[in-house]
Write a structure and sequence with these properties.
371 residues; alpha/beta; 11 strands
């Protein structure tokens, strides 16, 4: 065998993996397109028409790199949030920012606390930087804040990841519960509070921003309520010094110019956002009604998706999921024990819901027949 | 002082920096826009109208994440290049891919060889992962291939960065010289061959692709000749196992959907590419003629920019640069000794060249007056 450049021991130990298989890969395997794309927590109600128009208008300008300081977007976000621009960092989606956070705070072997069944991409980054993932099971389909705090203390963990509202279950904690977690957290532990679904949650679930705390990073995105997943634009809000640390490692010219333009326009279109939030809530109810019509329960959700209990074990839910995919409906499901009894259905326009309503009983029947 | 989460020792040691100050930051400081943006090696001739139209048509679809496998674009690139899709990885510009490469191959303290005055963003990534940068001075405004090879051998360096054509000087080596470097390189050293400017170079400067070699990664981009800098789409071509390693650490959902669409359309518009390459060559000649008209020499260039010798030392060139910026012409300059006698002027449409022609003598006169 020829000699070759050696990967670092850490890199060599990592699998070449994809945290989520994309619907396009499934479509290629199936040889045909999905008719309803309601599996990736995307927002089928789409972005603001103003964001679309802004991207179209700016398409000829993309020979220019974007402003590496993301100045205008940070200013607009700061104004919107009532913080200073120095309290905001913009990046390529929350995913990209999560990678930077793990890189900034975790050395190889250090513990990182998250929930068992929590966000796989965060876990991917923890593994990617050699962190040791410590997980705490969900409790009644919610992240177990007390259990997470206990794990942080036991492990003296530098990093804790909590999503509120949660993915993949859609559940949430009220702001006062999150505030208590923050109060009780060791000052030396950074809480990564993923609020990707914050806009679709009850206002009572989102604690006020407090950028005086050096150990909380609030993660937000234009991918969900704003319908700009494909543009990759997320941001973190936090204490100025914690935010400045991103400048040590981020890819300054990594943002797309059109992502800037789209995010600015989306931020300015409150009317569209309010309409989408209402549409999302209506679609969540519709999913719950469809489930109920099939004798199934759903988990209350503050997000743009609903976890539906298929009424059996993990393999049974996997079989239902497979039946839906075979029937041109793209959905996903949680993988961790207990949660895995569910499939996860993203909201979508009426046509998506109608197809789901048509196909769910067939998928259930097929799963029951083969059980 | 309140306790706070600790950055890793490496992260704590890094400065919060921007490898390049963007023209937008200068505009904010100046309080007015530049009239000619010819400093960032962007391509003012712009992207293919087909790429613009494709982005405009797809703008409403950006609620969907992009395919995390980048399947269609990798296939198209593979076909174009005569390799397999498994020999191609797509990422957020060459910058993003360079970061992944350093992460994959360099542990803290390991040596990385590059040229003194070479690409600052590569150096930023080396520092960011704790690598030890070993630099070799340019020789006659070209990267010193023999010197780089000697440094690799002396240091037993796992990584070597070479840009061909070069940035910031625009010079190039013929393919046979690069091929000889590859032949002589230790098999355990990965050569990162940055060919961002490959399309504007003489065909004789680009060695044929050989994806059987595990120790060469050829870096390409849609930012330069294709005029899509603001979309962030670059790729690496190499041996399949070396390419697969990116899947261990890349941000799978990090690509913009519109970047895919634009890159695919750009790739299909050979006519536009040929026209831009001709425009770039013409503009390089124009820059050289403007320099000559002011009694200045330029460095022969295979890129979309020209290094112009201001005829003095580094501070004098900096003064000329400052005079141009004050006169609404955005240019940049190399920072390393000897190279720093030059300013670096990117190509651009006639209006940019006319303004540059008008302002250069004034900036030179002002610099001479204050020298």
């Amino acid at each position: 065998m020829t000699a070759r450049p050696a990967l670092t021991p850490l890199a060599a130990s990592l699998p070449a993996t994809v945290p989520f298989v994309g619907p396009e890969a499934l479509e290629r395997t199936r040889g045909k397109a999905f008719r309803a794309r309601i599996g990736a927590n995307e927002n089928g109600f789409g972005p603001s028409p103003k964001a679309i128009a802004a991207m179209q208008a700016a398409a000829g300008e993309v020979w220019k790199y974007a402003d590496p300081e993301n100045h205008d977007l940070k200013q607009a976000l700061a104004t919107e949030l009532g913080v200073a621009a120095g309290n905001v960092v913009v990046g390529g989606g929350i995913d990209g920012l999560l990678g930077l956070i793990v890189r900034l705070y975790i050395e190889q072997g250090q513990p990182v606390v998250s929930s068992l069944g929590g966000y796989p991409t965060f876990n991917y980054h923890v593994a990617g930087f050699g962190g040791r993932l410590v997980t705490v099971p969900y409790s009644n389909d919610r992240e177990d804040l007390g259990g997470l705090l206990a794990a942080v203390r036991r492990e003296n963990a530098p990093l804790l990841y909590v999503a509120n509202p949660d993915n993949p279950m859609g559940t949430w904690w009220e702001a006062n519960e999150i505030a208590r977690l923050i109060e009780e957290l060791p000052e030396t532990t950074m809480l990564v509070l993923d609020e990707a679904y914050g806009e679709t949650a009850p206002a009572s679930a989102i604690p006020p921003l407090d950028v005086s705390r050096p150990n909380v990073l609030r993660m937000r995105t234009f991918s969900k309520a704003h319908g700009l997943a494909g543009m990759r634009c997320g941001y973190a809000v936090g204490e100025a010094e914690a935010i400045r640390a991103f400048d040590k490692v981020r890819n300054h010219f990594g943002m797309s110019r059109l992502a800037h333009v789209a995010a600015l326009a989306a931020l300015g279109d409150r009317q569209h956002l309010a309409r989408v939030v209402a549409d999302v809530a209506e679609s969540r109810d519709r999913i719950a009604a469809i489930a109920a019509g099939n004798g199934l329960a759903t988990v209350p959700s503050a997000t743009n998706f609903v976890a539906m209990d298929c009424g059996g074990d993990g393999p049974f839910a996997a079989s239902v999921l497979q039946g839906l995919i075979e029937r041109d409906v793209f959905v996903r499901k949680p993988a961790a024990p207990v949660l895995d009894r569910c499939i996860r259905v993203s909201v979508g326009p009426s046509a998506d819901m109608e197809l789901f309503e048509e196909m769910l009983p067939k998928a259930l029947a097929a799963a029951r027949a083969s059980a």
